[in-house]
Amino acid sequence: MSIIETLFSINGTGIRPVNASDIGFKMDWTGDAQEGELTVDNLVLANEAKQIVLDHIDTLGVFEGIPIDIQVGGVNLEYYIDLLNSPKISGQGDSTIEVSVRKRKAVDYFRQQANGTSFESVNKTNPITLIDVPYLIVRDNQLEMLIMLGISAYTLTKALIEGVKSLADAVADLVNASTPNTGAPSIDLGDVLAAAIKVTAQTIYVAALTVAIIDLTKQIIELIFPPIRKLKASKVKELMIKGCAKLGYSFQSSILDEYSQLTICPKPLKKNQNSIFTNLFTLDNGSYTKGYPTASDSCSTVGSLIDFLEDWSQAKIRVVGNTVFLEEEDYWVLNSGVTITNTLNLQDSRENQWTYNTSEAWKRYYTHYQTDPSDVHTLDKIDGTDCEYSTEPVTVVNSDLVTIKGVVDIAYPFAYGIRKEKLTIVEDACLPFARLADEVVQFFGGSSELESKIKGRVGVLMISQQYYSVTKLLYTVNGKQPSSYLDKISANVIYQKYHIKNQVKENFKKIYSAEIPFSTANFEMLLDNNYVQDMQGNSLKISTFAFMNESKTAEIEYSESSTEGDNTKTIIIDA
Q1: How many CB atoms neighbour CB 106 within 10 A?
Q2: Whole-Å CA distances, 108 to 103, 114, 319, 526
Q3: Residues in CB range of 219: below 8 A, 6 or more apart
Q4: What are the distances in angstroms from CA 390 to CA 194, 360, 508?
Q5: Model confidence over 534-550: pLDDT tens digits?
């Protein structure tokens, strides 16, 4: 097996670190999937390489790193020298400098950038395409409010009539007081002033009653037929594409290709209040959303949205080159071009040690969306908001010795957007009148669609008040959620689609550690995918990998599916 030398270069100039023979390559898939990395954090440089670093410091200072490329066969790994991590410089002449090196555009770098990138900043440079989500405010105490408003309106109207009558009397008194006597022309200024004050006070009183009645009328109209307003919202896939583009990456996900209708409806914000005259004659109460999540939302940054998507879909972010992938493990298994049949051969079981992945076992598995106390519809319709499963033994001899334990509790940071499934009691009661009005207008040759407008209010987003406190997750088609939206995003549907692979029985594995023969060509194939096959055709998942090029060997930890030590079943507790 030939060895291909590992080549190092700084700004195109070839170098060889003093500790080159000790440098290997590693990958770790136990957390975020890492691209190939060096097994060392520091390089020791001498001669020309040292001088390049010193010249860079003299010219650009220590706050800008120095790019360094490392080539293994056909693989080029981009690194940089991090001068902020205290380079160690010794002596003059042939002496050395020890520098810290870091991966350029590694997944942890992407994570750090994503966590600090808000959608506000994304929208400034990469405008986010928004959609309109029609909604209605449907309060939970409509009948009681309607009765109270009706009584209040009657009382105020009666008071207004009496106030207008009193105003008319006051005006008449003012006219009489300011009219000179016919016999001896004179005007009593005191009477005039008193009458004028009375007219002014009565006018203010009538105006206040008028404003109150107008406001009550608006409330009654809005209560019976609240206007269909629109909130701005954004698709999750759009947010991820624009968020990654902001950071210099493209984005790919077959998960969000399937769930392209997944939508985030941010919390409404309060803008500057309109003048009293504007508010007096409009039902608009001045709330809006920017359409993309802001600081008040539960996923205000690209990183927090990624966290949700990973929890929700049980997929992992991988960064391959300049592309960010959000894919399940099966995607990488199916797209693996790596078959190391001549090297990764399981030895006889009597000579091979293994353990089990019992640390990944759980007793209780619970996933759930949020409810919103400020939107009672999320409390009234909790179907599909959560699901719970339990791992139980199949065959038991001593029940007190059963040690299945562990809790997985996954809380999604969104509340459902509740769909208006049917007409309210008041709307339903008004249908016959609307139908009659349509028939009368059409009889005389006119056009009227009152009935269809009332029925058209079904299917929109329904909230109990204008300002809710938990960001909403929707599944929208043309802005509305279909009647089957819970069949797409309910907690149990998502569990069955993405989480069922985590059930102990389905996820029971043997874990092996081994030192195997390895080549540079194998390294190239394994760089972007950690699924391989052994000589028997078994699918193996590599967890960690360390390759020393000059030793032609690799130390790996890998796992394969097993059932021999499982003896469990998963039962549903609540869904």
Answers
A1: 19
A2: 9, 10, 9, 20
A3: 145, 149
A4: 83, 14, 15
A5: 767 777 888 888 877 66
